[in-house]
Known about the structure:
The structure is a single chain. The protein has 9 helices and no strands. By secondary structure, the chain is mainly alpha-helical. The chain has a single domain, classed as Tetracycline Repressor, domain 2 (Orthogonal Bundle). Residues 23-27 and 221-225 have low confidence and may be disordered.
Amino acid sequence: MARIVFTKKWAERIQLQGNKLQAAGAVREGAVRDRILLAASACFAERGIRPVSMVHICDAVGMSPSEIRLHFETKDDIVLALLERLQGMGLGDLPDLRPETVAAFVCERLRSWRATGASNAAFVLEAVAEGTRRARVAGATAEALALERHALVALLQARMRQACKALPEAEVRGRVFALQCFVEGVVLRVAREPDMDLDIVGESVRRFVAQAVPSFEPETPAFGVCA
């Protein structure tokens, strides 16, 4: 019996060590991806997206093509990764639509986005335009925005149900569309003013969301069921 316990303890230690190594590997991979995106965004900002090749990016980051392809197979993959940080800011990952939650989420994403160096206004505008010209990038971007919109609609509808309120479907979608447009405008503004105080950004987002997503106080109907 003692031998079985000993074996289990060592198995648990090995599993724990394996988990730690896996987590460390994920952190290292993320750091390498960020290095590549930082170098690529600098190249795109300086030369434009179309003239830049994978060779330019390799030279800028100091890695071989085979090393970069472990993380990004093509230049389109790099453009897609950068666009994911620029368009929509991943609002579909929000846990709820409380103004404070949305403001904190957007500011955190902007801090992460700034860390990649993709804060050049010319690059942002060209990246968005390039996303409409490259078929694969355009398709992926449109799909991501549609999924984000669907998730936001579901969040708003859930908030309305909790408050025992209702809005016409068209109004729900209109409010969600306005929120996406507002955040995209914030991204462009921060790109043009890279020293913008994110506290100001956060307060602006909070105020806008408070208007777009009213804070209804839940009613308490009989037997706890919405009429």
